[in-house]
Structure formats: C-alpha cells, structure tokens
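HUMAN:
Sorry, I am quite new to this. Are you able to go through these amino acid letters and fold codes? The numbers rather puzzle me.
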Amino acid sequence: MSILGHDQVATKADIADIRADIHVLKWMVGINMALTMSLILHAVA
C-alpha cells in the first residue's frame, strides 16, 4: 500500500515545489558545512 491514495497523484507543480525545497536545503547544508569547518579550523589553529 502506498502513502498516496489511488485518487491522489503528484502534479508537475508539486514536483517543482519539492525540487525548490531540495535546492534550498542543499544551500543550507553547504553553508552549514562551510561555517562548521571554519570553526573547527579556527579552533585547531
């Protein structure tokens, strides 16, 4: 059994929204990693 019912389908707009969210999450993770690495390098140096 799937999460979606038989009468529910993902539309192109739904997929576009998910892709936009994933794009934002990728940027957030990248910035977080860069800041974390700078803190670690600052603590070691």
The longest helix spans residues 12-44. The radius of gyration is 19 Å.
